[in-house]
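Incident log entry.

Two folding requests arrived from the same account within the same minute. Monitoring flagged them as a possible duplicate submission, but the sequences differ. Recording both here for audit purposes.

Request one:
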Amino acid sequence: MMYMPKRSDSVVSQVFPNFELGDSVLKYVQSFMYLGHLISDKNKLNDDQDIAREVRNMFVSTNILISQISWMFT
C-alpha cells in the first residue's frame, strides 16, 4: 500500500520512483482494506470511511431484523 506524498509541490513527488515487489510495480491508492478495516489517505490516515461503512451496515442489519419480526406485532 502506498499513498501519494502529502506535499505535491516538492521535487520528490514529481520524480518519485516506482516501487517494485518482485516483478510487480506497486500502485498508489486512495484507500485500502486491511484485515477488514478500511484505511483512507484523505488529509491524513484515518478511518472515517470505515466508520461510515460500519454504520450503514448496522442500519441495514437493523432494518432486516425489523422487517423479519414486524409480523409478530401486527
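Request two (distinct sequence, not a duplicate):
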Amino acid sequence: MRRTHWIAALVVAAMATTHAQQPGRYDVSRFGAVGDGKSIETDAINKAIDTAAAAGGGTVVFHRGTYLSGSIRLKSHVALFLDQGAIIEAGPIDRAPCDAPEPNQWDTFQDFGHSHWHNSLIWGENLDDVAIYGTGLIHGTTLSRSANANSPTGTGNKAIALKNSRNVTIRDITISHGGHFAILATGVDNLTVDNVKIDTNRDGIDVDACRNVRISNMTVNSPFDDGICLKSSYGLGVARATENVTITNCQVSGFDEGTYLDGTYKRTVRYGGARDTGPTGRIKFGTESSGGFKNVTINNSVFTYCRGLAIETVDGGDTEDITIDNITMRDIATAPIFIRRGNRGRTPGDPAPGTMKRITISNIVASGVRDPQGILVSGIPNYPIEDLRLSNIRIHYTGGGTRADTALDPEEKEKDYPEPNMFGRLPVYALFARHVTGLDVRDADFSFENGEARPAVQLRDVVRVDMDNIRAQKPGTTARELLKPIHLANAVKETY
C-alpha cells in the first residue's frame, strides 16, 4: 500500500510538472497572473504573449480563475486557451485601461466603431496564425456599448478586434457583454469562428471586408443590435468586398441581455416608441457596404424574437451570388426578408449605387411576424434589384392591417439609412416589391392570424416576373382553409 501511494504521488507530481513546463505552452500564472478577480493581470498576460511570440509561437494558457485586464495584444503564431472556469474580464478603466483608438484617416466613411481596433479588450493587427479557443468566458464588464471619440480615456468598446490578419480561429469560447462589438474582424482572410456563444448588448460578430470566412454552430443573443453581421466598410482605406463566406447551423435572438446565458430567455425588450422596431438580433448584410458582398451562403439557421433577414447595399458596393436556404423564424419584429438597394453613398468619390443580383432565398418558415410589413424588396428608380428568386416560403403573419393601409404609398428614401421601418406600414401584408428586374417567386404560402384588410402582394416597377403556386389567405378571413391562389395577372395592383 505504501509503495502504491508513493508511485501514485510520483505520477501526480510528474503530471503537474509536465503540464507546467510543457514546451510551447505558457501559463499566465508563471508570469505573475493570479486570477483572483481583484488583481490587474494586463502586464502578466501580455508578457506571456510576448514570450510565446519570441519563441516562435505557442499557446498562452488561462486556468480556472478571473483575470482582470486592460488591452491584451495578440501576436502572430500565438493562441489563447481559456480552460473551463477561466474568465478574462475587462477591468475598471482607471486601473486596467484599454488602449486608445488609433488614428484612421478614413473614419468619416463609417461609424467610429468600425474605424478603430486598438480600443478593445483583446486586439491584433497584421497577424498570421492566431487562435482564441477553449471553454472559458470573455466578460466585457466595463466595455462601452457606444462608439465615439469622446469616450473617457481608457474606455474599450470591443471584446475582440482583429485587423488585416490571416489564418484566424475562434472556437468554443463564450462572450458576455461584448460592448459595441463582441467580435470585429476587418480585413481578415481565412477566418473560422465555430461553436461560440455570445450574449451581448450590441453587435455579436461583425465580419468586415473579409475573405474566406466560415461561421458555424454559433448562438448570438443581441437584443439591441445585429447578431451576425457582414460588412464591407471603407475602414481600411479601400473598398474591399466581403466574399467567400459560409454561415451555417447558427441561432440568433433578441432576448434580454444575459438571459440567454442564464437560461431564462426574458423578453422585456418590447415593441413601441418612435421606431417601433422591437429587438434586433438578426443576420444582416450591411449597412456599411463600400466593397459589397460576393459568393455568400447562409443555411440551417434559426431566428427567434428578433428582426428578420436583411440584405442591404447602399454605399456603392456590389452584392452578387448570394444563397440563403433552410431558415426558420419565430416572433419576428419587422420584415422577415428585407432586401434593399439604396444610395447612401458613404464611400469616397460619390459612387453609383452598387448592383444587387443573383440572390436566391429558399426554404423559409416564419411565424409570429408582426403586422407592419411582410417581405420587403426595394431597389430605387433606375437601379433595380436583379435576378431575385424566392422559393418554398411559408410565412404566418400576426395580421392587423386596415383598409386605410391599402392606400399607403411608401416613399423611396434613396439616401436614408436602410431599415425596414423606414418605409412604415405597407399597403400589403405578405410581399411588397418595387424596382426589380427578374423576380421569380415559387411555392409560397402566406397567411395571417388576426383581422387583415390588406391584399397579399403588390409589385411596382417589376419586370420579368414569374410567380407559380403562390397561395395567400384572403383579406377579411380568419381560417387557414380560405387560402386562395394568387394569379399573376391580378398581382401587380392588388391580389384580390
